[in-house]
Amino acid sequence: MEQRYHNSQKEVKEMNTAELREQFLVDELMVKGEIKFTYSHYDRVIVGGAVPTSGKLSLENFPMLRAEYFLERREMGVINVGGNGKIEVDGNTYEVNKKDCLYIGRGSKNISFSSASADEPALFYILSTPAHKEYDTKLMKESDATPVTLGAAETSNHRTIYKYIFADGLQSCQLVMGLTILNTGSVWNTMPAHVHDRRMEAYFYFDLADDQTIFHFMGEPQETRHITIHNNEAVISPPWSIHSGCGTSNYSFIWGMGGENQDYGDMDPVKITDLK
Ligand SMILES: O=C[C@H](O)[C@@H](O)CC(=O)C(=O)O
Ligand SMILES: [Zn+2]
Description:
Layout: E1 2-4, H1 9-13, H2 17-24, E2 25-26, E3 35-40, E4 46-50, E5 57-58, E6 74-80, E7 85-89, E8 92-95, E9 101-104, E10 111-115, E11 124-130, E12 138-140, E13 148-150, E14 159-165, E15 176-182, E16 188-189, E17 194-195, E18 199-206, E19 214-220, E20 223-229, E21 233-237, E22 244-247, E23 252-259, E24 268-269
Parallel strand pairs: 1-3
Antiparallel strand pairs: 2-21, 3-4, 4-11, 5-10, 6-9, 6-11, 7-8, 7-10, 9-12, 13-14, 14-15, 15-23, 16-22, 17-24, 18-21, 18-23, 19-20, 19-22
The structure holds 4-deoxy-L-threo-hex-5-ulosuronic acid and zinc ion (ZN).
């Protein structure tokens, strides 16, 4: 498991392209036949990807967690963005197909991931946060989420938001998770941008054509920087940073947060004309 430590606002201002990418971009997340993890020290959120092919992939423990097993003191959210797949949690099997979300509660011990087809494998995107108590492991199908439409074609940000793990959805200790789908011709996400000093956020971009890119904007609202992102890559957003993107075509992304509260609406918006 790779570790990413904190960076101060002052430090980030001074970073060049390579340094920004090294600190905040999480690439090589979806690797066939592997589970990959990156441990961020912002709210101790672990970002991961699991791509099972012909066999099952089991969730292993990591010595750096100093735990008996991965979810001894943690909870986990998983969203599939690939082919049909299954997740087994302590003997129960859940069908987690594209855009379905499984919340896995603290205390769950034996977890494994599998794909229905090795040729079209499931792509499981994983977030894990520290948890103080156990909530039920529960599946939310895409069709059970309540979509909310935001933005407009005129401002190139017409998009639909699906919330899965949050105060009024799947219950968790602190994890918040969902996804956003941009309409064809819309390329801007999260504009107007916002910060939420109470929560870090991670974005995972998917369903972007292989020959396209997304300019992901980060940094303090008056000190913005960008990182270019390709399909199936994630980016870490410190609590004090904006997180917004503009693609060279439309795309979808999973957002997820850990921290002080689970109130999706807790955002301090930044006026578009105040961004620098
Ligand atoms: O704090 C919330 C997150 O930044 C995202 O949910 C925003 C988002 O998906 C969007 O506006 O498209
Ligand atoms: Zn946000």
